[in-house]
Predict the 3D structure of the following.
Amino acid sequence: MSPIVHPSPLPDVEIPDCSITEMVFAGAEARSGETAITDGHGDSYTFGGLHEAVRRLAGGLAARGVGPSTTVALMAPNLPAYAVVFHGVALAGATVTTINPTYGPGEIRYQLDDAGAEMLVTVPAFLPAARAAAEGSAVSELAVIGEAPEAVALESLLGEPIDQVPVDNADHVAVLPYSSGTTGMPKGVMLTHRNLVANVAQIGGFLTYGENEAALAALPFFHIYGMQVLMNALLASGVRVVTMPRFDMEAALGLVQSERITRFFAVPPMVLGLARHPAVDRYDLSSLKQIFSGAAPLGADLAAEAAARVGCEVVQGYGMTELSPVSHGTPEGRLRPGTSGVTLPNTEIRIVDPVTGADQDTGGTGELWVRGPQVMKGYLNNPEATAATIDPDGWLHTGDVATLDEADHVTIVDRIKELIKYKGFQVAPAEVEAVLVAHPAVADAAVIGVPDEEAGEVPKAFVVVAPGAEAPTLAELQDFTAGHLVGYKQVRRLEVVDAIPKSASGKILRRELRAGP
């Protein structure tokens, strides 16, 4: 039987054959004097100034031997200079690997080693962790945005401005963010210039902006959502980007008011805050045209509650790191509550029953498969994981269960993969379990995601107590794991059990844990 392929209801868009940096700055000269990116507190670049800084950093890096065979790690919070480093590296023909700045040295070191990074750019506050992680790795140079003792200042790396170092846009890896994929340890997601350019063009096919628009960029640039939907797509569209180094509701509301923000990009916990935080009523949010939520499903009731309070449309989209990241979004005026919108231009989907393998038509439920130019090149150094995610016909198997309605809108209804999504961040159960079982009072452990109104999901641990030991408390396990895992990977709930249910092959039967006693 032939597969049932559902094309996008939106017209195809042109995908330029250029690098991501060339696309982002294609209109920079026409907007040269306009503010491109600012923190709202005095640190900012105009489009012309930003493009010049990118070209000068690329020139300086190229003069130091940074080029198509080099990977540069970037570990920083959202700030205007983030775009300088990201695009300076890309323009020099090198690969950027973006690192979560709240990682501990062990997590940083894992990514540095796996990515083969030779340079690490960070900020002074994160230098101690960066130095500890870089010691003994392939990193030969540490640079800082700003100034710090015994570190190279980013400013000193600027050289003569250059244009794009030639690369094969369809094959060269522009950025290497890390994702847990469906299971296991984080994997480097190889995204080419074409992947990034295609998705920016596709985003433009459903998200359109008017003159003098401004967007809040509180979602981290190291994460693919912040990197592409905010930093790259907004700059390419001429939208003023207002950065926040970390999200704080009251500070965000203040920036919406002072910077006349028109677009608020969010994850569901932020939407919950907009719906219920008492501070919302103290600020003028009349400039807002749209709140766009992604990274995790947003309930229709919560979206409606936030929309009524703030006074603008609340929509959502769908994507994943391996999709650069967007495959679905809600065009203006086409909101259908609870859905993730329609399939993006130049993209096809299938809804496939995970048990029978049968394709589903409109109204059917199954695993969402996606095919399009935004599908990643593959996982770095992991052909097995790549083959398990992308089939020979180019279909990426998302691991999410979805349904397609009569208006071509997709709704994510469940997940067949084990990955936990905590406030939009990915948590691999196996990684947490490996740390938990190192505790002397834990004989065995399993971790699942359980629903949480604020976070979407939180990690819950089931532990078997070691013989002769006292059952550890949740606080004790959190203290133990804090030195090994970033905060969002922390276990939030705990249940002591006699045994972890497992299959004959030793695989944890998480469905039994979810079902309860």
The longest strand covers residues 442-452. The domain at 42-168 is CATH 3.40.50.980 (Rossmann fold).
